[in-house]
Specification:
The complex is a heterodimer of chains A (about 300) and B (about 280). Chain A is mainly alpha-helical and about 300 residues long. In chain A, about 75% of the residues lie in helices and about 5% in strands. The relative contact order of chain A is 0.13. In chain B, helix 3 packs across helix 14 and helix 4 (about 70-100) packs antiparallel against helix 11. Classes of the chains: A mainly alpha (about 300), B mainly alpha (about 280).
């Protein structure tokens, strides 16, 4: 039975196929799958690189996380960041896409310019914004003062420090999301708009009755990847504020990084990472569900 | 009348956003040409804020000639790693993508699902065990750590599978009839037809490597071996470093990429679109 099943395959072809796959497969096994399993194991251990000891800890790491105020705060900061970035960035990017969707003279210029910040690396963008935000010499406050507005101290005022990071992230990502929306918009057939136009629909009606519903697939994709990326925010935090001032910008990944590579407490950090991974997974699944039921109209 | 007003407002909005998008980059480049005194001199709105008064290349000279922070070395390190990872990655990912897209073999479905399932695994979770693995291999402070784990990129495989699927199987079978082996078919028929997809993937891989931050931060501690992004971030933790030097460093490491992007924009945008369409 089994032999006849395999006889359907060309032996040489199968062999060639496996040889083609082997390099990628081995790399994947060693550097992705094995670490995933080991992460799970470590999360149940007391594993500290400084003490060079490791012992079974059961659910102790996980239990401790629920009582750890620093972890709770970092979770809240990640969610706060996401709750603002998700709607604001999505709206801005969709607006940009609508602005540059139609062909007109100079549209290529605007598309390129809006996309340019994406090409600047996150580390560099964060470094530059840190200088721009400087209270005394930064460009932002010089301009604000020049216009007679109060200065914003994004780097040392805990009430607004996260907003500074949010602005920087939206600046860098809006062009990226715009391009995804543009692709989605271009998939909507022109005939629909023409028909709506004939029926006398206003441009606002056309947007809410045609563009938005037909953009649902693209929107689902944008919402899910934006949420995932936003929850995992790290580089701008590390560079601009290092989690400060007063811990007001410490996010989950920043917490994991500090715990693992500053305190060398691998077990605890792995548990935090796993817990966080499940949260992100659950959120993604919920979002996917929400969009799926909506699509069937 | 109403129509022209709308167009005017629209254009004004577009120009304003373009200004916001480009200003930090403009400011970064311009300030890198300023003298140390000049950067802190103009703290009120004035034309001097927007253009250097006394153009200087001193900041660039400083970062390249400073022996304790050899910036040229960092750039060479990063370029080397990015080129090696991109080359090896294109080969390994294209090979497996070809097998998944065109060849028939047992357990193909299961293997493909296994590959794709790795897309769910967030990097943050495997970072810790990956670091421990690098320690076991003795790869801490070695480029092996920056290269080998980065080669396989399942998203890239996924993208290429879609691309290779369009190649008609008849062509491959005809080549088989003529006595060509699969390796030959892959190199002589499949790869040449996939050049646009390979360029797209190549650019994305290269940029990912050029921008890579968290992983080198974790596995490279030796000053001389550091990559560009981490080096820049360590610049500013030095208390008395001048802004001019930081900005010269950020400019010199992003302006070539920006220029490259202007030429290869089509491919890059195509890559993003492909990821968005299929999701």
């Amino acid at each position: 039975m089994k032999a006849s099943r395999f006889a359907a395959y060309d032996k040489q072809e199968s062999k060639a196929a496996y040889l083609f796959i082997v390099p990628a497969f081995l790399l994947l096994a060693v550097f992705i799958f094995y670490p995933m399993v080991r992460a799970l194991i470590i999360s149940f251990q007391n594993y500290n690189l400084i003490a060079a000891q490791s012992s079974f800890a059961g659910f102790a790491n996980y239990g401790k996380l629920f009582e750890d105020g620093a972890f709770g705060a970092s979770l809240w900061h990640s969610f706060y960041f996401t709750l603002i970035v998700l709607p604001v960035q999505t709206a801005i990017s969709l607006g940009l896409a609508l602005l540059v969707q139609k062909k007109f003279r100079g549209v290529g210029f605007f598309r390129t310019v809006y996309f340019l910040p994406v090409v600047v690396s996150f580390a560099i963008a964060s470094t530059v914004f840190r200088l721009i935000y400087n209270k005394d010499y930064g460009m932002l406050n010089v301009v604000l003062k020049g216009l007679g507005l109060p200065a914003l101290d994004f780097l040392s005022n805990p009430d607004i420090s996260m907003l500074g990071i949010i602005a920087l992230c939206i600046w860098r990502a809006m062009g990226f999301v715009m391009v995804i929306f543009l692709a989605g918009l271009n998939n909507i057939p022109d005939s629909l708009y023409e028909a709506a136009h004939v029926d006398g629909a206003s441009s606002v009606q056309r947007f809410f009755r045609i563009t938005l519903p037909l953009l649902k697939r693209t929107m689902a994709f944008v919402v899910i990847i934006t949420t995932m990326d936003a929850l995992k925010i790290f580089i701008p935090i590390y560079i601009t504020t290092s989690g400060g001032p007063a811990g007001s910008t410490s996010t989950v990944v920043h917490f994991i990084y500090e715990t693992a590579f500053k305190q060398m407490n691998m077990g605890y950090a792995a548990a935090a990472a796993f817990l966080f991974f499940f949260l992100v997974l659950v959120i993604s699944i919920i979002q996917l569900r929400l969009f799926r039921t909506d699509v069937e109209y | 009348m109403n129509r022209t007003l709308i167009v005017a407002v629209r254009t004004a909005v577009m120009i304003a956003i373009a200004f916001i998008a480009i200003f930090p980059i403009y400011w970064m480049v311009m300030s890198s040409f300023r003298t140390h005194e000049e950067i802190f001199k103009y703290t009120t709105l004035s034309p001097e804020l927007f253009l250097p008064v006394e153009w200087t290349l001193q900041n660039y000279r400083d970062i390249f000639l400073d022996p304790s922070k050899p910036f040229g070395r960092y750039m060479a390190n990063t370029l080397f790693i990015a080129v090696v990872v991109t080359t090896l990655g294109l080969i390994a990912n294209a090979m497996s993508a070809f097998a998944f897209a065109k060849l028939r073999f047992p357990f193909k479905k299961i293997l493909l699902t296994l590959f794709m399932s790795s897309l769910v695994i967030p990097y943050e979770v495997i970072m810790i065990p990956q670091y421990l693995l690098m320690r076991d291999f003795g790869w801490i402070n070695s480029y092996m750590a920056l290269i080998v784990p980065q080669i396989v990129w399942v998203f890239g495989i996924f993208m290429l599978v879609q691309f290779f699927s369009d190649i008609p199987r008849d062509i491959l079978d005809a080549a088989r009839m003529d006595g060509a082996g699969w390796t030959r078919i892959f190199a002589k028929i499949v790869l040449p037809t996939a050049v646009p997809a390979l360029i797209t993937l190549g650019i994305m891989t290269f940029l990912n490597q050029w921008d890579s931050f968290l992983w080198p931060l974790v596995v490279i501690n030796e000053e001389k071996k550091q990559v560009i992004q981490v080096a820049i971030s360590s610049f500013q933790s030095l208390r008395n470093i001048s802004w001019g030097k930081i900005l010269a460093a950020t400019s010199i490491s992003s302006v070539p990429i920006l220029v490259l992007f202007l030429f290869l924009q089509k491919y890059y945008v195509q890559g993003i679109t492909m990821s968005g369409v299929k999701g």
